[in-house]
Give the backbone structure.
Amino acid sequence: EESSNWIVMVTAKSPTNIAVIKYWGKRDETLILPINDSISVTLDPDHLCTTTTVAVSPAFQSDRMWLNGKEISLSGHRYQNCLREIRQRASEYEDEKRGIRISKEDWGKLHVHIASYNNFPTAAGLASSAAGFACLVFALGKLMQVKEDLGALSAIARQGSGSACRSLYGGFVKWVMGNDVTGKDSIAVQLASEKHWDDLVIIIAVVSSRQKETSSTTGMRESVETSTLLHHRSKEVVPKRIVQMEEAIANRDFASFSKLTCTDSNQFHAVCLDTCPPIFYMNDTSHKIISYVEKWNQYEGTAQVAYTFDAGPNAVLIARDRKTAGHLLQRLLFYFPPNVDLSSYVLGDKSILQEAGVESLK
Ligand code: 2P0
């Protein structure tokens, strides 16, 4: 008889991504199929990321998951769909040294344990589902010897959370909406690698760490049902912007990139206002940051910084280079002084604070 005290595990890490042409609205809620293409930039893997370990053992009695050390339920259809899709594609695993063999059929019977950690405070109000589902699907795919490419894996991550499909790749990524009813062509493709345009620096200004009042899922459902602007956006506006954004990225054209990014964020929030009842994701501070960046760009005569806001008030600011990012940080701290230790607000590379001469501000 085989002993049942073995365990096989895989650990993976995925960064989050920020949309510069937004996804908002589904045509199929179960498969998570969008009504338009979207484009995002994937952050550095060290900063806002999720690390997930998946393990399998005959000793496990059921599928279980812990998020930041606390057990959560896997019963929701999003987790169930990802687990099922990966299990269907599992292939044989063999470790001769340890005498472990897991057949394709065994994968359907064995249970998994999943431990996932976000390296940023969950309370910071920053999206974690994108990195989370990308990481989970990638790690499960590795564990269960799934042989498919990243595009196929992205279509599975998509069923966990739409924006997650874009976190399978680094750099600039397009989520192609596809037109198949099964969703097999609604996948992420890489437009350019992380090396293509590495001057850009992204600063996320945490405006409020409160949980958002309207979840993205509910918000976009209500927008699809009630906003006429959303239908105009998805049919007439986004297709053209996607072409222009791909060109701006290919040419590293910051002026065009910045214009498209800001305009698209503003239209997304206009759609939220056009929704019945209206959804307010930005607050007064968000609006002040927009005005400030607009004035700065106008004063310089060329775009220095782009802004974009997701389903919450936090500003994602994209500076054209490191020097501009230093200036931006100084100005943000001057106009919007936080009343806490700054270093705890800069995740990852803190040297930018020293360069900006603001490390001692408290
Ligand atoms: C995006 N957002 O493109 C847009 C812009 C928020 C604003 O994707 O229901 O968590 O899981 O597919 O992906 C947030 O929505 O929603 C989002 P589901 P998701 O990044």
Observations:
- The mean pLDDT is 93.
- The two ends are 64 Å apart (CA to CA).
